[in-house]
Design goal:
Layout: H1 4-7, H2 13-16, E1 34-38, H3 40-47, H4 63-68, E2 73-79, H5 87-104, E3 109-111, H6 115-123, E4 127-134, H7 143-151, E5 154-158, H8 171-176, H9 188-200, E6 203-205, H10 211-220, E7 226-230, H11 244-253, E8 256-259, H12 263-266, H13 270-280, H14 282-290, H15 295-305, H16 307-311, H17 317-331, E9 336-338, H18 358-368, H19 372-390
Parallel strand pairs: 1-2, 2-4, 3-4, 4-5, 5-6, 7-8, 8-9
Helix pairs in contact: 3-5, 7-9, 10-11, 14-15
């Protein structure tokens, strides 16, 4: 989740304007579709959105559109920033939200705890749901809280979000505060967290973590890791993306890297284009803010008003495919998946307007020359393999 604390509300309704007019994209063949990162729970709690209602124009996701897009399983992000008071309680509030949705729609979505339950749900045409806690600060330095979240269906934890914890340093902080951090990487307690996750069967997620934390975790874990929503540094050099040696290390570990759909992680020129757009409309933006409106409100207004301009800012679908292809060539076909970050990003690639458009990725991979067998691995089988490898029997 790249920019939640700045423009979480800038979902740019214009990005979804064309969705209602589009026909649903049909999958070209059968495959298991698993997305390892979606932030609709945060949107649901903070904006009062009911996931099982029609949210077109309000979000990237809802229960009906997941079915249209062919989604079989979703790991739902449980998130708050580092300033949230009582983050463990807030995590449980988000988890409660999805349990309520599942209780109202038992034939459509079910909370699952392992690969066997996931596959059983798929066979019943239900969406299988798990949780991924995005930020180790949400356990409040208590291993008992980690245990509790696991029992409720959390199957990965991202060791840090952008904020570091007292036991793990984030990519953002290692980049921007490297000379003032009290520590880099995992402390002894941080290694205990990783070890406890291994014993529970909870995947260690290395998105957002600093390089030192990454290497400490790789050297501590005894199970394959997950990188739930990150891209390739060599193609787009931002601190949240993985460098080549990290990609190779995930492959050696047996883990999987789920590619993020955020334009700013896919296209190195996106942020420059966005800054140019804001500069072009600076006077209008400043006048809106001067009336007492927030910066996110002003940006939301401008992005909607100038929808045609905004559409041209976004990364292309081919750019997403390039990141997938790069990881395949660097790490092998068994180590890449999808972690869209839908509802946690303001700018998905062109054409991928919401969760109904996943089949476009399959079509693009077919055009790239990927076999059906390899596409099935990317779309979901690789995650299933890593999930099973972490399970405790």
């Amino acid at each position: 989740m790249p920019i939640k604390n700045y423009c979480i509300v800038v979902f740019c309704i214009c990005f979804m304007q064309n969705v209602s007019a589009q026909e649903t994209v049909k999958p070209p063949f059968n495959y298991l579709l698993i997305d390892t990162h979606n932030d609709i729970l945060t949107q649901s709690v903070e904006k009062g959105l009911a996931i099982d209602s029609d949210l077109k124009g309000k979000s990237h996701s809802d229960l009906s559109r997941w079915k249209q897009g062919g989604l079989n399983a979703q790991v739902f992000s449980v998130w708050c920033d580092g300033n949230k008071q009582w983050p463990f309680i807030y995590a449980n509030r988000q988890i409660d939200t999805l349990y309520a949705v599942a209780a109202r729609n038992p034939d459509k979505i079910v909370i699952v705890h392992n690969a066997q339950q996931l596959q059983r749900a798929v066979s019943k045409h239900q969406i299988a749901a798990m949780f991924g806690v995005e930020g180790g600060h949400m356990i409040e330095n208590k291993l008992d809280n980690l245990d509790s979240l696991y029992k409720r269906g959390t199957r990965y934890m991202t060791l840090t979000w952008n904020n570091s914890t007292s036991w793990a340093s984030s990519a953002k902080d290692e980049t921007e505060k490297k000379d003032s951090l009290p520590h880099k990487g995992l402390t002894d307690f941080g290694k205990q967290v990783v070890e406890r996750m291994n014993r529970l069967g909870m995947l260690v997620d290395l998105s957002h973590v600093g390089e030192q934390t990454f290497w400490d975790a790789i050297n501590t874990t005894t199970k394959p890791v997950l990188v739930s929503h990150s891209c390739v540094y060599s193609l787009c050099p931002v601190f949240r993306n993985l460098k080549d040696d990290q990609i190779k290390a995930v492959a050696k570990n047996g883990g999987v890297i789920s590619v993020n759909f955020y334009s700013g992680f896919l296209d190195s020129n996106f942020l420059k284009r966005k800054e140019h757009f804001v500069l072009q409309h600076k006077a209008e933006r400043d006048s809106i803010i001067a009336t007492g409106k927030t910066v996110p409100f002003a940006d939301d207004y401008l992005f909607e008003k100038y929808a045609a301009e905004v559409k041209g800012l976004r990364a292309t679908l081919s750019c997403l495919i390039d990141h997938i292809d790069y990881i395949v060539k660097m790490a092998g076909i068994d180590h890449v998946g999808l972690g869209s970050d839908f509802d946690g990003i303001e700018s998905p690639p062109q054409q991928l307007d919401d969760v109904t458009t996943y089949p476009l990725i399959v079509n693009a991979l077919l055009q790239k020359g990927y076999s059906k067998k390899d596409i099935r691995k990317i779309m979901g089988k690789n995650f299933i393999r890593v999930l099973k490898a972490n399970e405790v029997h």
